[in-house]
Amino acid sequence: MDNQNQPQPNEVTYPDSYKILSTTDLNSHITHVNSDFIQTCGYEKSELIGKPHNIIRHPDMPKAAFKDLWQTVQGGSSWMGLVKNRCKDGRYYWVNAFVTPIKHQGKITEYQSVRTKPEPELKARAQSCYERINAGKTVTPKNRLSIIPALGLSWAISCLMFYLTTISTMPVSLVLIALGLISFLLPLNRLNQRLSHLMSMSKKVHDSALNQVIYTGYQDELSHLELSLRMQKAECLAILGRVKDSGEELQESMEEQDQQTQSNQTQLVEQSSNLEQVVVAIGQMNEAVNEIAHNTTSSADEISTLVEKIQMTQSALETSQKTTSEITGLLTESQQSISDLELQCVKVKSVLEVIDSLAQQTNLLALNAAIEAARAGEAGRGFAVVADEVRSLANHSQTSAQEIQSIIDTLSDTTAQAVSQMQQSHQLTSKSVQSDQMLSDSLQSVSEALHQMEANGEQIAVAAEEQSTVINQVYVSAMELESGTNTFRQNCEHAASTSQEVTAQSSRQLELVKQFDS
């Protein structure tokens, strides 16, 4: 035990209205405490729940008192007694404890203790009795004589005094004494029977000699009856205390439920508003999806038309590509023919060179013949004429050969230029064929992509229609949910009204309990 829990001599007082309540399981572990319990002992609720109940036991309490308590409650009966408890800080407080076993289907399930503030004289007697018990001494009441024998003894003494005062008239005195005794004993016997019956009933309520001394200071029939009445009062106070505690918990729960219901109601209003917006949004989305499906179908039709046009263009391009290939072939053949012509021109130039050479030689021979004819004189005149004609013919042949050479050179240049242009045309047509092929490949790719787009568009259209169907179902479900939410909101409003009524009834019940408690 730490210093904080060491017993202190200072007593803790608390209001007379406190009903210090706790419950424990069958192993005496605390399962519930009320606010009065916490305020009095100084522990937090978390420090008490699940702990053994002897956490508040004071060392001044004799073990015999707790032994009597456990024997009584484990036997199924209620127990009442003055108990000195210890606070968390070591101080103490006195309680008038009423412990009851709580049963369910005939079996004890927990123990309930409701404690009230005892009168100062009860605390003083309990302190004295417990000190004597702890010291090993017996508890002696002020009076242990039964009421009936006491009345009989008192009557006998009165008769004796009467006899002594009237001894001179003994016969008359004896008669008077006998008559008085009979008139006294008859009602006294009846009173004794009634008192015995009440004693038997009170013992069934509570039978504890120690508590008779503590609660009354006596140990006789009247103290027994007083103890029973106190026991009945304590039981009523315990019932009222438990009802009050349950009512306070119920009221607190109902207030929390009322707040939660109001919060739920507010959230439902917001949710209903949001749900209305969702329904509108779903309707708009449904229209948008339908429009998308329509546009997708139209796009698919346009794509189909475009695919057909591309296929026609691709077919025309293939025809153009074929024609270009044929032109390329013809250009190749023409280039070959021109090359052959150029070769023939070269050969002709060679022949012309030979002719030119022959003409020069002929001209030279004619010149020599003319010289020789001139030397011959008259005899060589005819030969000179021939020589002149030969030389003229040679000059003419050389001139013609030169003209032909010039024409051949021009033709050769033109042919070379034509060959160059043919080569350029061939290159251009080759590039055109390659471009046409690339364009054809691109058109093929575009056609395939458009086919895929067409297929995707059809799938999108189908998916959009399915989505539209699903959205319609969601729209219907949202409408039903909105209707259900409105119904639930109305139910919550009704529940809130009912909760407020129950809270009011709980408050009235607590006020009624307070009236009985007072």
From TrEMBL:
Alphabetized Gene3D superfamilies for the sequence = Methyl-accepting chemotaxis protein (1.10.287.950), PAS domain (3.30.450.20)
Record PROSITE patterns:
CHEMOTAXIS_TRANSDUC_2, PAS
Q: Where does this one sit in the cell?
A: Membrane
Task: Alphabetically list the UniProt keywords.
Answer: Membrane, Transducer, Transmembrane, Transmembrane helix
Q: Where do the TM regions start and end?
A: 145-164, 170-191
Q: Taking every annotated instance into account, which residue ranges of this chain make up the domain PAS?
A: 25-76
Question: Which superkingdom, per the lineage?
Answer: Bacteria
- Locate the Methyl-accepting transducer domain: which residues? 246-482
Question: What is an example of a GO molecular function annotated in this UniProt entry?
Answer: transmembrane signaling receptor activity
Instruction: Cite a single Pfam family from the UniProt record.
Output: PAS_3
One biological process term in Gene Ontology: chemotaxis
| InterPro entries with a match to the protein in the record | Chemotax_Me-accpt_rcpt, MCPsignal_dom, PAS, PAS-like_dom_sf, PAS_fold_3
| GO cellular component: a single term | membrane
Family, similarity comment: Belongs to the methyl-accepting chemotaxis (MCP) protein family.
NCBIfam families, alphabetically?
sensory_box
Name listed for the protein in its UniProt record: Methyl-accepting chemotaxis sensory transducer with PAS/Pac sensor
Which organism is this entry from? Answer: Shewanella sediminis (strain HAW-EB3)
